[in-house]
């Protein structure tokens, strides 16, 4: 099946918000999603955007029963390694189930790598949930290394009241 | 001991580069550090910087034998969670060994949290090496959660030749 990958625009936020919910459902964390179409519009399409996006589109004749032609997306942002310098972080990569196995996920990821290299980045970083074996296997097959398994990187997070307390110096 | 925390400027890059090497030595990865003072100047002080920095300074009378008064730093950048929206990522947090136990690390981290909240972020994210128990314990004491241990987040990375291949679609 033909498909195309292009930079996401403001008009894609509705479909990206829909697919974020689909991905969260797959990852069993639907109740955790607070991001709305409006948030995406406000956070990704301002002067110093918090993220960038790309979308995968199929021709009209392959649209879904619901009428969707945007069937995949990736969100990314630029980051920094104090060892290696410029890096790109892929926050999300998603392809709708009926459109998997056609190379769309690989093409989206390849595009993020291209954009990163063009911006002078030497690393592509992202996270995956350890029970999500199909994704983990896919990423490993694409030349990625699980640096939690190999060198012991653990992800830490502070949020909610704890973050407020930390900011006040009262943790 | 008195100390102050302030936004890093171009003139701080020499000291930050020095402390990046000190931290890498502690983390036993000195050979991995490619970032130079010049890289920091170029990547952190352009129109859309790849990172932001803050430094901790002590008064002249407490300078080190080598004459340093900049004794700690944190690097951070803004990021995005497709579930929770705006987030801040702390890339590095370091305090020189002779200046630990005085609250400088806590103050640096608190400042990153403040800056994140001020920018509308609801999460502070970072990584720690699992063998670095003193750091891990410190972060947990500050209200952070180890989301690798609790929900199985693994960090993945693609770099070097593998990243080039991924970008070419030939992985």
TrEMBL record, chains A, B:
CDD domains from the UniProt entry: NAT_SF
GO BP, sorted A to Z: polyamine metabolic process
GO molecular function term, any single one: acyltransferase activity
UniProt-listed InterPro entries: Acyl_CoA_acyltransferase, Diverse_Substrate_AcTransf, GNAT_dom
Residues of the N-acetyltransferase domain: 3-161
Source organism superkingdom: Eukaryota
UniProt entry keywords in alphabetical sequence: Acyltransferase, Coiled coil, Transferase
Regions annotated as coiled coil: 16-43
Family label: Belongs to the acetyltransferase family.
Protein name (Swiss-Prot/TrEMBL): N-acetyltransferase domain-containing protein
Organism placement in taxonomy: Eukaryota, Metazoa, Chordata, Craniata, Vertebrata
């Amino acid at each position: 099946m033909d498909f195309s990958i292009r930079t996401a625009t403001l008009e894609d936020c509705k479909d990206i918000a829909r697919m974020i919910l689909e991905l969260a459902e797959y990852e069993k964390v639907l109740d955790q999603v607070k991001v709305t179409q409006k948030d995406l519009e406000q956070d990704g399409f301002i002067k110093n955007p918090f993220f960038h996006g790309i979308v995968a589109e199929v021709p009209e004749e392959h649209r879904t029963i619901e009428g969707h032609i945007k069937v995949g997306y990736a969100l990314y942002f630029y980051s920094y390694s104090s060892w290696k310098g410029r890096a790109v972080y892929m926050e999300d990569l998603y392809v709708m189930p009926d459109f998997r196995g056609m190379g769309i996920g690989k093409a989206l990821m390849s595009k993020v790598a291209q954009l990163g290299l063009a911006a002078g980045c030497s690393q592509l970083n992202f996270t995956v949930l350890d029970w999500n074996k199909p994704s983990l296997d896919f990423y490993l097959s694409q030349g990625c290394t699980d640096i939690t398994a190999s060198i012991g990187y653990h992800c830490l997070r502070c949020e909610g009241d704890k973050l407020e307390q930390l900011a006040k110096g009262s943790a």
